Amino acid sequence: MLYDEVAKRYHAPALEDMGDNSSRLWQAMYRDEYIYSSPEIHHLSLPAAIATEIARAAVIEFKSEMADASADLARDYAGLLDDLPGITEQACAFGGVMLKPYALSNKVVVDCVAPDLFVPLGVTSDGKINHVIFIDRADALDDKGRRVFYTRLEEHDYSSPERYVIRNEAYRSDTRNSLGDPCALDLVAAWSGMAEEITLTGLDQPLYAYLKYPQANNLDPTSPLGMSCFCRAIALIQDADEQYSRILWEYTGSELAIDADITALKAGNKMPVHGERLFRDLGLDAQDGFYKVFSPAIRDESLFRGLNQILRRIEFNCGLSYGLISDVTDTAKTATEMKIAKQRFYTTVSALQGALREALEATVYGMAILLGERPPEDISFDFDDSILTDSSEEQRIMIAEVAAGLLRPEEYLMRRYGVTEDQAKAMMPPANPDTHIWDGEE
Questions:
Q1: Are residues 156 and 271 in the same domain?
Q2: What pairing do the DSSP bridges indicate for beta strands 257-260 and 279-281?
């Protein structure tokens, strides 16, 4: 594999050295590719579903603004926020992704780099990646019409705070999965004009950010790379797929059929399917009767209960609340259990939101540097917390507090509609002399 060849060249661990439960496996499962796949196994696509649910909860109604940013930076940052749901989902599934800003024409865009396209070479004492190789690929036809593959290795070295070094190397190969031989950068139009080495000074941090899924790496505590949101449920996901396949087979095997004499069948004596299987030849003769009805009882209820218990175990191992992917009719039985399950998911999502905040701040720094601007100091992040608090219940409580004189009406309007205090006061109706609700005085 190309990644392993690059890693070996720079004396870094190869993906194959990280064990079976590694980024390569997680990416395959996210794409619905499984090592246990077979024609008899039907997949529920649980890895992608789990990553989607966690990412959706983390960025739902997410808002972020920069008070002191230029129009160009604000525009480019808005483009990044538009892509944030997909970026977050990949970070959840893969254990983490690199956010790498780069200049494109007159703006800066952010590339979401999957784990198989960057090689960490060094980390700081607090586990931050400060030396990394980014892998960029391109292909083209040579003058003889043969397809050739180009690889660009972009090295970012911030191991010394005094200097930030960026190096570019290009390689050409006749095969997709090998690095090949060194070549000139300008053989690829998109790489033409890139400097082989640039040294920058005065930087406070790297020009990239690692969005790491906030879960301890129990397989390799020394690794700076994150773990997939479903890495602790790999075997359970296989169990769920196999149980789901049993359910489908139960329905298929229980289809209504009539076991009849051969004279009642069409020519060919083949096993019929669906509606045509109403007549099947079992060699019955007259003394056995002309036909027998095959209509066994379906055991789907017990099979579905078994599947649901597996799904609940997956939810527990992945930090989800019960009912998120399992059957909602079989969720937590008591209010205490429901609150604990909801709190577990809230903790999972809150930790991810913290990682998002840190990664976005670092990404904005790199974007500003590439635009030749001073990085903004005031970035606001507004995450929705409705996964733990029922918004309708919260609103009911606030209205009751206003009625009891415990909360000012304008404070309620500010929180309800996201307006300023002056706007809230303008929204309020004239004071009613028969009640003290609106002025707060007796």
A1: no
A2: parallel
Collect all residues with Cβ–Cβ distance below 8 Å to 25 and sequence separation of at least 6: 35, 234
CA 27 and chain centroid, separation: 11
Q: Which of residues 244, 272, 294 is at a domain's end?
A: 294
Q: How far are the Cα atoms of 59, 76, 136, 141, 160 from residue 101, in angstroms, in the given order? A: 21, 10, 14, 29, 21
Same domain for 276 and 397, yes or no, is no
- The residue range of the domain holding 423 is 390-430
Tokens of 293: 């009805």
Residues in the chain: 442
Q: Residue 4 and residue 108: Cα distance in Å, rounded?
A: 30
The mean predicted confidence, pLDDT, of the chain is 85
Average pLDDT over residues 353-358: 96
- Of 338 and 283, which is predicted with more confidence? 338
CB 164 within 8 A of CB 157: yes
210, part of any domain:
yes
Same domain, 71 and 141: yes
User: pTM for this one?
Assistant: 0.81
Report the range of poorest mean pLDDT among 10-14, 17-21, 72-76, 421-425. Answer: 17-21
Quick check: is 322 in a domain?
no
Kindly state whether residue 329 falls inside one of the protein's structural domains.
Answer: no
Q: pLDDT digit string (tens) for 136-177?
A: 999 998 888 899 999 999 999 998 888 999 999 999 999 999
The listed range with the strongest mean pLDDT (166-175, 277-286, 431-440) is 166-175
Are residues 412 and 273 both part of a single domain?
Answer: no
Do 34 and 93 share a domain, yes or no?
Answer: yes
CB-based contacts of 32, cutoff 8 Å, min separation 6: 43, 45, 47, 48
User: Domain total for the chain?
Assistant: 3
User: Cα separations (Å) of 117 from 46, 149, 259?
Assistant: 24, 15, 58
Verify that 165 and 129 share a domain, yes or no.
yes
Q: What confidence tens digit (pLDDT) does each residue in 171-214 have?
A: 999 999 999 999 999 999 999 989 999 999 999 999 999 999 99
Co-location of 131 and 179 in the same domain: yes
Residue 41 has pLDDT above 50, yes or no: yes
| Same domain membership, residue 111 and residue 182 | yes
pLDDT above 90 as % of the chain: 56
Of 294, 320, 348, which marks where a domain is finished?
294
β-pairing, 379-382 with 63-66?
antiparallel
In 114-188, which ranges are E strands? 118-123, 129-141, 147-160, 163-173, 181-183
